[in-house]
Specification:
The longest helix has 11 residues. This protein is an alpha+beta fold and 145 residues long. A three-stranded antiparallel beta sheet has the order 1-2-3, with no helix packed on it. The protein has four helices and eight strands. The termini are far apart. Strand 1 and strand 2 form a beta hairpin.
C-alpha cells in the first residue's frame, strides 16, 4: 500500500506518454484554415466543428489503474472541417496553456458569422453560458441573417 502511494505521487508529476508526434501546424486565418502547407479556404468549407477544447498541457487527468503519468499533453482538442466536396478533415491539436483557443476569438466569431461554425459551438468554445451574457454576445458580435 505504501509503495502504491509513493508511485501515485511520482506519476502525478509526469506527463502522459504521447502516442505519436506533434508534427503539424494549425493556423486559423480569416479567410482559411492552414494545416501545415494545406490551406482550406472558407469558400470550400461547409462546416467547422471544434470539440473538447478543455484540454491543455499540464492539465491533471485522473485515471484509476493507469500507470502512465497523470498530466495531459493537451492534445485531446479536436478540429473537424467538412468540405463542400463531402471530404472530412479531422485533426487533434495541442493547447500549451489553458484556454489558448480563446486567442482565436475574433477569427472564430468571423467563422460563425460566415455560417461555417455554429454559434452554439462558438458559445461553448468561448465559455459563454449565462443567458444574459449569451444575449449580449449575440447582439454585439453575431450578424443576424
Amino acid at each position: 500500500m505504501l509503495g502504491a502511494f509513493f508511485f501515485g505521487l511520482y506519476k502525478s508529476n509526469k506527463h502522459r506518454t504521447l502516442k505519436g508526434e506533434l508534427i503539424s501546424e494549425l493556423v486559423f486565418q480569416k479567410d482559411k484554415i492552414l494545416i501545415d502547407d494545406t490551406g482550406y479556404h472558407l469558400d470550400n468549407i461547409k462546416k467547422i466543428s471544434i470539440e473538447n477544447t478543455f484540454d491543455y498541457k499540464g492539465r491533471y487527468t485522473y485515471s484509476k489503474g493507469n500507470f502512465d503519468g497523470s498530466l495531459s499533453n493537451g492534445v485531446e482538442n479536436e478540429l473537424l472541417i467538412y468540405l463542400n466536396n463531402d471530404e472530412k478533415i479531422q485533426v487533434n491539436f495541442q493547447q500549451v496553456n489553458e484556454d489558448d483557443i480563446l486567442n482565436e476569438r475574433e477569427i472564430l466569431i468571423h467563422y460563425s458569422n460566415r455560417g461555417k461554425l455554429h454559434y452554439l459551438n462558438l458559445l461553448k468554445i468561448l465559455q459563454i453560458q449565462n443567458y444574459d451574457e449569451i444575449q449580449n454576445f449575440k447582439t454585439k458580435y453575431l450578424e443576424q441573417s
